[in-house]
Design a protein that fits this description.
Four copies of one chain form a homotetramer.
Chain A lengths: L3 H18 L8 E5 L6 E5 L12 E5 L17 H9 L5 E5 L5 H6 L19 E2 L1 H5 L9 H11 L4 E4 L3 E6 L2 H24 L7 H11 L2 H17 L6
Parallel strand pairs in A: 5-6
Antiparallel strand pairs in A: 1-2, 1-4, 2-3, 4-7, 6-7
Helix pairs in contact in A: 1-6, 1-8, 2-5
Chain lengths: 242, 242, 242, 242
């Protein structure tokens, strides 16, 4: 019988690959989860493309983003994104950092991302922006120092995702499945918002609708149904972790 | 020799998978058909992604959307969409509810969908809108109560499809094949209409053209030819129901 | 050793499938070639989707579009497109009628299609329009009567392709390979023209460039190189005719 | 143990296929590298589509673009692009000439390509334009004469890529991996820039950011991680050179 940790690593490997297989992650980006039994640790792969991550590639980190055992492999430079968010948000159990093609235009132009259809309610009432220039001036745009991760976590606040100017997105979830769902459907919502704006005035969900539709979008029923579908697609693509 | 019901369930499983494989359905949405021998019942899968539906997953429902035998599995919350339309439209024998990426921008912006090429005539002269806000105020946008389904069926009226604001589409057909054809080619038409509007003034089909081209688009010849093609693609994708 | 006719039918089956596999043809559309030894006849499949056409599906037709032997299968309704063009254009040895998603917006809006990069020179200096309304008023938009085919052939004139309002495209070639090349690269050119226009003022090829680049685009070298590539992709997709 | 030359040819075959499999190269375009032990020569396939190139297809050329041994096969007409750049730029060890769909709209409209997100820094501070008309008037737009190659190399100057009006792109790298990375991620950047401009005012990377982010984008870590990912995708597509 697999241990909770072994199950968690397997689930996290699948999450990495599902988000990649659905086109939200590419060569870059990463997905983590909080340790299943020790909330002061989180799990994250060594530095490799998410579509390639195996359960064995996943290591334990302190919330200061130090590896428990130093692996032979190189680590993601941006792991403070994960550690600082787990510190600031005890309710968060999974984090995905990505550069989805449908949301990057928002990160580039500063256009506000809003839920425009029921499944878009997964992104919450708004996705705040974070701009590395505000506190750190000219950088390589990566979030590698603890203070940069802290600043990003502060911009995220109580929201479900944060848009990083000229860089990408960081989305969170109370569970791995919710984080996967949010990463994928907020990307779809972005695509529809752009196309809808091209056709006329858009009329986003109202606060009451966001609350009600968000409950459904993030319910176990919806998450399980979508997870089964994505897992089947992963299998057909020959991408199930070994 | 398979019974009419067994044949119907197999055909409906294929319809679900074809529409998904052609990119109109994703993790969500559902397709139903009227019972082949009892017009007071309809057939619908339990709650799972359309691309995964097998003949064995399909159950019988009364037109009040109650299952004849209560299955162990969870059911689609929105099955009243199907039941209320079958009640209101004796000519309708298949219903598809989807969130196609090409039509969602219309649902978001309120832009009118019009047939802009001969195959687009399958959508009829116009696709009316339905807005959950009009009668029900703030909801989770799903159509789950009988009165919501009834309201949607009323908005559909005698049309072939209805656009649901901030949500998706419901398309009908006198047969499963026609419903599949309409779901797919109205989505293509939407894409071309958007792109055509981006290039200049569009000049949609005239009423006489819609009537004449619609007859062809919905003729057995066209439906069978397209069905053979989609079925072949389904087979190549490894998605034929077992 | 295969006869010229057998070789021609095999090549035509491949041409149908290549154009479909490259996304220019879908469930509908058709490709024909002039008979390799009898210029008063042409070869065309019975009515099925181009991606499915086998050598055995291909029949001989007079230039009046009558089958030499009446097959059991249903025939394409629009075969007069082919017959009337072969009559009017002795230099043409292959014809493709399609509804490519990238060119349909031009057919809908009336925007002129122009060569905007060297490979686009395959479409010639301009693609004239044909509108079924001009001579025939309200129709189902299909080209099924000899006089409709004749009218279309007249609009094509000495050009390499003609855009059919609210319908699609007919492209010709002095050989099957050239017709395939033109169908595919004129569709790519359309996509780039639209995107280029979205970015600013476009600056199409000049007459001298169209002539010089057209010679290269339609040279044996280019045609053979592209054909090898598309055939390899067809093979990988499992779509080579049996 | 394979010789440096054998290893180089294998790597170059993979580079050709990776760039094609990621959608940047199609039937046309080509990738070369400087000879691993003799800087006065470069390696390039005979004239075939990049996705089909095998190690055995790759020949040696002088920097005047003459083959060391005349092969039986036809050669690329545009190989002076490679030779003239290797002459002018001793720091360059790989060259890719392509017609990526996302950058062609820039080549058609003259819109300036700018890095709009961190990975876009791989394209450098700016991509200059080269217009065949300026020095050569009406041509077939191909770069086939030594003076045309020299003119293009002059327009490239010290930059990392040059946009060729109404034609395509030539990108260089100090290594094969960097050239592949630049070809792919500058294409992604182009897509995001266009979409971002559609949403509002874009705010590209600042000079300091381009320098810092460029160092990271072109570091061994990033290049190796992306290469592993693309190679895995190539393998899954059945496209690994034999």
């Amino acid at each position: 019988m697999p241990s909770p940790l072994a199950e968690a690593r397997e689930k996290l490997a699948r999450a990495n690959r599902i988000i990649a297989n659905e086109g939200v992650l590419d060569a870059f980006g990463h997905v983590s989860m909080r340790h299943p039994t020790n909330p002061e640790r989180y799990l994250l792969s060594y530095s490799r493309s998410p579509e390639l991550v195996q359960a064995d590639d996943i290591f334990e980190f302190t919330l200061d983003s130090e590896p428990i055992k130093t692996p032979a492999q190189r680590l993601y430079g941006e792991r403070v994104i994960h550690g600082e968010i787990y510190k600031a948000r005890p309710d968060v159990n999974a984090v995905c950092h990505h550069h989805a093609s449908s949301i990057l235009p928002f990160c580039i132009s500063g256009m506000e991302l809003k839920p425009v259809y029921h499944l878009g309610a997964t992104l919450g009432s708004a996705a705040p922006f974070w701009d590395s220039r505000d506190e750190f001036g000219d950088t390589n745009l990566l979030v590698v120092k603890p203070e940069e991760g802290l600043s990003l976590a502060r911009a995220l606040g109580k929201h479900d995702m944060v848009l990083m100017k000229r860089h990408g997105v960081t989305a969170v979830g109370t569970s791995v499945k919710m984080c996967v769902f949010r990463s994928i459907f907020s990307s779809r919502n972005a695509e529809y918002q752009v196309r809808g704006m091209g056709l006329g005035t858009i009329d986003p969900l109202r606060p009451g609708e966001i609350e009600l539709a968000g409950k459904i979008a993030n319910s176990t029923t919806g998450l399980d149904r979508a997870w089964e579908y994505w897992l089947q697609r992963l299998t057909r693509a020959g991408l199930l972790p070994r």
